[in-house]
User: Which sequence fits this backbone?
């Protein structure tokens, strides 16, 4: 049985970066302590032998939910763009993008 | 006290105008909401226009629907077109959705009048409404206490008598727990019974929209209006809304009730006592009552605090400052994302996003998220076994009565423990309801929880009605301080 | 000097020709005004939910069947990463339970490339980088259009069975033909409806292990594909031969500079944190639907080539020449084979029709696809019988194409070629009927197919100068016993 390691400061720093969050040192310390306690509790789940059991992704046994390939009205562009922080030429404007998409 | 059926009937008959009903609600809110802070936004202009249109329709001889003129409060994670929807977060401050949630459209279609958006823990993450970016809602009966969460605003709005109906969302107990703490009825439907389209997602496989009301009947009327298949939600069950109101009085003769030990043990003694009392009352009413143990309940909290944050971490990625909401500038888009999210999210949301990211990250998926989803299956199987011997289960809704503001805010684990009795139903997808049943030693409300198998809402409400009928005197009107 | 093998696997993203997007009813269209085909779902607005497009599943199954894949029950996963062209900052895709598993594609040179999987996923929006020179790395800001966000894609992953840039080119060409034949794609690489990424590695000849591979992106044309693979293989060989090691990375093909460059990205390795999409339910198309999808696939390129080869070689001495093979491939590639088949049905000799299609028609595809097959047929016959020379035939054809139609005999007349006088035509028809009494009797008895035989004979006798319409009228007149006009 593989016991997952304890949650440490570097783990929290790593997931914060993945989640595009910036933490102060104080927050990093505080959150690490708090999250470690939660993970400690979660280790009782990790330790369970659930070998023969399938995961439940959905509590409802539905399948094959489909819709017909019919056009539906789109949103009014002006209404959508009025909510945007910055736009230009009918498009959403963002600061420069460094790096390509994966 | 008028139930919503009678209220709607009188509006439909022209005996009361929707405008006068609305005026009553608005004046109650004006009187007390500065101290309770149930509402984040009261949409007076829109409400008035809707009420006037309704009265015109009645005068013209048409039937506006089963909720004609009934004022409703909506948790602020439900999209309302053109009306601010913030999820209690700075990151959505000022956002006006360009569309209505399906439940909102159904409410309007039934003649309900949307009065405003209520306070919540930010992105529905919390059990006290203290995680709201604009400050907490206070318990209508004792302003030094929490109303519960995350649907604290809607529960308080109903409990304070501002509106007879509220909608909340329940992911780990967020409708039922505040209902119990505030002394109102709160219910979580079978997963898939009510459309999630337009409910701003927290944990997609757990979230359900649920009714909050003063009585079981009112909650049933509301659920009848919002439930039923929606083609905009792939997880929506392909069935029409169930009929609930007509069978409420059928009683509980021969119903097999299992008092679930794990939903009573570990709760405060005064809470446990009320559950026992409710069990006895059901027995007197003709039910067969016995004890049952579902040990797998103990894993619920841990599984929940892996699954919910994991899904949330993904659901909340879209708040990146690009298309709507808050944007804090950055020298490139990634820096802008970081600055925006860091400023826009509160600490509890950040905690859960990081926890969820961790549970899904490479190397840890199988141990945490993957395992938790299997534990979920174990729980579903365990409850299914219990339901072979029992028709419904009984237990506490919350382990204690309303706690003090600030008491648990610095200890996330302690806060998470508030959900231990409600979480199992979210994990299994089964329906459950909290019914006010007396008070605790401190005079604050206690809620008793009834649980049923999936799609057994009719049975669930019937038993709930029986529990309500037996509630200790004075508590059926425990919408304390209600201004009508 | 060691010999090196190039090993290539290709990932082809195919935009599906549905009317609407994968998870919502917004139009799936290219070139519309920015952000006019958006809704809460494809914009990823808070509270929105996806609902799967049935036609996307249909087309995905047709693709799977055409590639000999196994269609399996499947689910969707979320692939999580931040990028401004992603409205939800996760992409709904398929991970370890995709709809199509396995399969292969046979190429015209008889080589076979294995298919690993072909799954369904949603497309992203489009970003344009602005300011400075407009190139990514010196841009000041960017603009995002979400019209394309949510468009359905099928991603087809090949096995690393490809051994050269030219085989890669042949694979993409053949695959494109398959995708167009199934109705799944319009095949327009230049519009981005077909996008290719290449995984390239090298190994010493005879070595069975795979070398470290690099993924090459931004291949916008077949030419780029070939150049990039050749460049990258050379780069890797040079690296290893001088004692270096190939680093597994994603590289960008720079068309202008003619080389691949490593991508600069914020995170070294993306942790996508895949988990099953909770807003969608499992997909398990029943056998009846799978069969219907299979039955809806048109003639695949291989079958089209075989059909043409059959026409060209029937009645001849066996195999097509290699030049004819090339012509057949080109004609099928360009979707002109139906035209050739119809022209042959209308009396044109197959070999020459093939040549004219492969050469002249391919040069003006837009007009060629609406060319009237019988006009084309008459022209080919005129050339076959020597009524016009090859040069003249090409000129007439060019005119037919640019005018958008017309009659070759009239064009020939207008350009100063002999026309056949009408009474000569009547005489020729009468002579032809006389010379083929048996066939004429059968034609009279109702064997209408023989009209084609007589038309062919008359065309031959008049060296293509007869007007097809007049011939048909005359035959009819004779058959019905009507007097001369």
Assistant:
């Amino acid at each position: 049985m593989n016991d997952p390691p304890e949650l440490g400061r570097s783990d929290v720093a790593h997931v914060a970066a993945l989640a595009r969050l910036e933490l102060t040192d104080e927050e990093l310390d505080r959150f690490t302590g708090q999250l470690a306690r939660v993970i400690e509790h979660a280790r009782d789940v990790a330790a369970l032998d659930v070998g023969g059991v399938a995961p439940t992704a959905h509590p409802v046994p539905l399948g094959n939910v489909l819709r017909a390939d019919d056009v539906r009205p789109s949103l009014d562009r002006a209404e959508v763009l009025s909510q945007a922080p910055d736009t230009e030429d009918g498009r959403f404007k963002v600061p420069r993008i460094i790096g390509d998409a994966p | 006290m008028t139930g919503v059926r009678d209220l709607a009937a009188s509006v439909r008959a022209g005996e009361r105008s929707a405008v006068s009903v609305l005026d009553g609600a608005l004046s109650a809110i004006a009187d007390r909401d500065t101290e309770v802070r149930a509402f984040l936004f009261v949409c007076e202009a829109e409400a008035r226009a809707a009420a006037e249109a309704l009265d015109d329709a009645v005068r013209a001889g048409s039937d506006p629907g089963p909720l004609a003129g009934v004022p409703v409060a909506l948790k602020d994670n439900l999209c309302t077109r053109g009306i601010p929807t913030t999820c209690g977060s700075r990151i959505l401050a000022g956002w006006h959705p360009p569309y209505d949630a399906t439940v909102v459209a159904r409410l309007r279609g039934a003649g309900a009048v949307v009065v405003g958006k209520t306070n919540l823990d930010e992105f529905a993450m919390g059990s006290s409404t203290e995680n709201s970016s604009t400050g907490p809602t206070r318990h209508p009966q004792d302003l030094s206490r929490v109303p519960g969460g995350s649907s604290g605003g809607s529960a308080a709005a109903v409990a304070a008598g501002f509106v007879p109906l509220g909608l909340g969302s329940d992911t780990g107990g967020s409708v039922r727990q505040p209902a119990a703490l505030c002394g109102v009825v709160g219910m979580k439907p079978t997963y898939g019974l009510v459309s999630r389209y337009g409910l701003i997602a927290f944990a997609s496989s757990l979230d359900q929209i649920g009714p909050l009301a003063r009585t079981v009947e009112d909650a049933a009327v509301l659920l009848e209006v919002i439930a039923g298949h929606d083609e905009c939600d792939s997880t929506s069950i392909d069935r029409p809304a169930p009929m609930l109101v007509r069978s409420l009085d059928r009683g509980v003769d021969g119903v097999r009730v299992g008092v679930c030990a794990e939903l009573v043990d570990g709760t405060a003694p005064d809470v446990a006592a009320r559950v026992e009392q409710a069990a006895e009352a059901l027995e007197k009413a003709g039910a067969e009552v016995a004890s049952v143990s579902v040990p797998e309940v103990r894993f619920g909290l841990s599984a929940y605090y892996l699954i919910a944050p994991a899904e949330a971490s993904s659901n909340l990625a879209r708040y990146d400052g690009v298309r709507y909401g808050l944007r804090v500038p950055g020298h490139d888009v990634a820096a802008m994302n970081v600055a925006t999210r860091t400023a826009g999210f509160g600490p509890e949301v950040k905690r859960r996003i990081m926890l969820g990211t961790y549970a899904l990250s490479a190397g840890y998926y199988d141990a945490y998220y993957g395992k938790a989803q299997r534990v979920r299956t174990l729980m579903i199987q365990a409850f299914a076994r219990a339901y072979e011997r029992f028709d419904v289960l009984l237990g506490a809704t919350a382990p204690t009565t309303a706690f003090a503001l600030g008491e648990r805010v610095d200890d996330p684990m302690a806060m998470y423990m508030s959900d231990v009795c409600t979480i199992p139903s979210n994990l299994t997808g089964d329906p459950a309801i909290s019914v006010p049943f007396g008070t605790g030693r401190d005079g604050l409300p206690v809620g008793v929880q009834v649980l049923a198998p999936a799609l057994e809402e009719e049975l669930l409400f019937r038993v709930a009605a029986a529990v309500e009928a037996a509630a200790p005197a004075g508590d059926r009107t425990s919408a304390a301080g209600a201004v009508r | 000097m060691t010999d090196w093998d190039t090993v290539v696997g290709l990932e082809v993203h195919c935009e599906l020709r549905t009317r609407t997007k994968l998870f919502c009813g917004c139009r799936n269209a290219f070139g519309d005004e920015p952000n006019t085909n958006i809704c809460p779902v494809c914009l990823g607005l808070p509270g929105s939910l996806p609902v799967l497009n049935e036609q996307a599943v249909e087309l995905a199954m047709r693709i799977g069947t055409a590639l000999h894949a196994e269609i399996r029950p499947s689910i969707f996963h979320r692939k999580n990463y931040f990028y401004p062209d992603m409205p939800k900052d996760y992409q709904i895709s398929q991970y370890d339970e995709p709809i199509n598993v396995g399969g292969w594609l046979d190429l015209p040179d008889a080589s076979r490339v294995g298919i690993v999987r072909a799954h369904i996923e949603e497309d992203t929006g489009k970003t344009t980088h602005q300011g400075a020179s407009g190139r990514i790395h010196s841009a000041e800001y960017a603009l995002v259009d979400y019209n394309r966000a949510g468009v359905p894609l099928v991603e087809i992953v090949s096995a690393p069975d490809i051994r050269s840039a030219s085989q890669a080119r042949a694979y993409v060409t053949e695959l494109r033909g398959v995708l167009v034949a199934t109705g799944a794609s319009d095949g327009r690489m230049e519009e981005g409806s077909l996008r290719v990424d290449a995984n390239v590695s090298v190994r010493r000849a005879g070595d069975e292990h795979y070398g470290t591979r690099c993924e090459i992106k931004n291949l916008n044309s077949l030419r780029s594909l070939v150049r990039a693979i050749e460049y990258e293989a050379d780069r890797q060989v040079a690296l290893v031969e001088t004692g270096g090691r190939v680093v597994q990375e994603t590289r960008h093909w720079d068309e202008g500079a003619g080389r691949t460059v490593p991508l600069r990205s914020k995170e070294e390795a993306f942790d996508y944190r895949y988990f099953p999409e909770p807003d969608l339910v499992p997909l398990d198309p029943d056998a009846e639907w799978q069969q219907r999808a299979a039955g809806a696939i048109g003639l695949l390129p291989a079958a089209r080539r075989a059909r043409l080869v059959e026409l060209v070689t029937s009645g001849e001495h066996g195999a097509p020449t290699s030049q004819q093979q090339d012509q057949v491939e080109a004609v099928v590639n360009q979707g002109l084979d139906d035209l050739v088949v119809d022209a042959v049905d209308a009396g044109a000799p197959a070999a020459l029709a093939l040549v004219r299609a492969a050469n002249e028609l391919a040069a003006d595809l837009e007009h060629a696809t609406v060319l009237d097959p019988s006009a084309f047929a008459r022209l080919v016959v005129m050339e076959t019988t020597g009524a016009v020379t090859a040069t003249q035939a090409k000129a007439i054809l060019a005119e037919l194409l640019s005018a958008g139609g017309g009659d070759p005999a009239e064009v020939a007349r207008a350009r100063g070629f002999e026309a056949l006088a009408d009474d000569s035509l009547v005489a020729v028809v009468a002579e032809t009927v006389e010379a083929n009494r048996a066939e004429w009797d059968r034609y009279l008895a109702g064997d209408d197919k023989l009209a084609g035989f007589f038309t062919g004979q008359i065309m031959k006798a008049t060296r293509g100068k007869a007007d097809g319409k007049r011939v048909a009228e005359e035959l009819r007149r004779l058959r019905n016993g009507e007097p001369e006009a």
Q: What stands out?
A: Confidence is low (pLDDT under 50) at residues 475-484 of chain B. Residues 4-248 of chain B form a domain with the Amidase signature (AS) enzymes fold (CATH 3.90.1300.10). Chain B has 15 helices and eleven strands.
